[in-house]
Amino acid sequence: MESIFHEKQEGSLCAQHCLNNLLQGEYFSPVELSSIAHQLDEEERMRMAEGGVTSEDYRTFLQPSGNMDDSGFFSIQVISNALKVWGLELILFNSPEYQRLRIDPINERSFICNYKEHWFTVRKLGKQWFNLNSLLTGPELISDTYLALFLAQLQQEGYSIFVVKGDLPDCEADQLLQMIRVQQMHRPKLIGEELAQLKEQRVQKTDLERVVEANDGSGMLDEDEEDLQRALALSRQEIDLEDEEADLRRAIQLSMQGTSRNICQDTPQTSGTHLTSEELRKRREAYFEKQQQQQQQDPPGHPCEKPNTSSGALDSDLGDAMSEEDMLQAAVTMSLETVRSNFKTEGKK
After folding, report:
1. Could you give the angle at the alpha carbon of 110 between the alpha carbons of 107 and 111, nearest 5°?
2. By mean pLDDT, which of 15-29, 30-44, 275-289 is the weakest?
3. Which of 104, 74, 79 is CA-nearest to residue 22?
4. How many CB atoms lie within 10 A of CB 291?
5. Measured between alpha carbons, how far is 220 from 231 in angstroms, rounded to an integer?
6. How confident is the model at residue 165 (pLDDT cuts 50, 70, 90)?
7. How far apart are CA 262 and CA 103, in angstroms?
8. Per the confidence metrics, is the pTM higher than 0.70?
9. Degrees, nearest 5: CA angle 169-175-180
10. Which terminal Cβ of the chain has fewer Cβ within 10 Å, N or C?
11. Active-site positions?
């Protein structure tokens, strides 16, 4: 497809595009076609002058040219004379005379089609047919079986179709497509359709950008929501930690109560009352104060009286109880510190 020459529509220069697409090259320019049109106008003026310059036909002919206009339109006479330079001739395809010949369109080499001042070429390159309409974004592949139907459809729409007779100049696309066949997955669009599609794509792009911006805002909300969920998870961990600490403290208290119960089995207690750690501490302080008072009352050089068995047992048991209490408290404290450290590490992650 890349090797096929295809001029796209510019202004009203469809006649120029039609000729160049037919010949597969930049063979004609607007200036050259204008020159042909002026030459035709002059020849017609000279023939009209033969009937007298005062005749009505001559005065009518002096009106603007019928072979071209300021927009770039050129008549069939201009196209026909331009092709004569290359030895090519135009024959009306949908004329009764040509239809009687019953020539299969597939056996021709090219066609020129016209409808309401628009010209375009249908040409065979290699072994395949292509619609080289300048209003298309590129060449359109036409199958051999569809060619006759395509031309019949153009006739039904009011097109005038001309068969190009003669040897067309050699071109690279024709030589290349003699060796290979091309396939076309997507039909080329009309230039107007392409512009409309591009406009629609721009609108869709704008809408997409708005959606993306909206999604960015949602993303921020999602991030905030994630932070909130993370904070709630950490809060739940803190609650679990506090619950664990409470459980440990209750276990310590129960253990201390069990120890105190064992220690104070022989001491008078009110029924149903258990000594706490604070009560044990106060009793220990009172015991040591009593010991110090006895030492102050004893004369120097006399050994202190050995405390009775119940007092000594109480002191020993209290000491052992306090040692076990201190050890248990230290172990619990270390356990809590480890839990807090692990919790802080997880929070930073």
Report:
1. 115
2. 275-289
3. 79
4. 14
5. 16
6. very high
7. 126
8. no
9. 150
10. C
11. 14, 118, 133
User: Which residue has 């459809």 as its token pair?
Assistant: 153
Report yes or no: 5 and 170 within 8 Å, Cβ to Cβ.
no
Side-chain-side CA neighbours of residue 5 (13 Å):
18
Q: Are 58 and 64 in contact (CB under 8 A)?
A: no
Q: What is the largest CA-CA distance in the chain?
A: 173
DSSP 113-130: EEETTEEEEEEEETTEEE
User: How many angstroms separate the CA atoms of 295 and 141, rounded?
Assistant: 125
What average pLDDT does range 344-349 have in this prediction? 54
The region of weakest confidence among 221-235, 252-266, 275-289 is 252-266
pLDDT in the model for residue 103: 87
pLDDT of residue 191: 86
Report the C-alpha gap between 333 and 301 in whole angstroms: 46
Angle at the Cα of 265 from the Cα atoms of 259 and 266, rounded to 5 degrees? 135
Tell me the mean pLDDT in the region 69-80: 87
Query: How far apart are alpha carbons 146 and 288 in whole angstroms?
Result: 121
Question: 86: which 2 tokens?
Answer: 């290359």
As given in the structure block, the two tokens for residue 67 are 């072979």
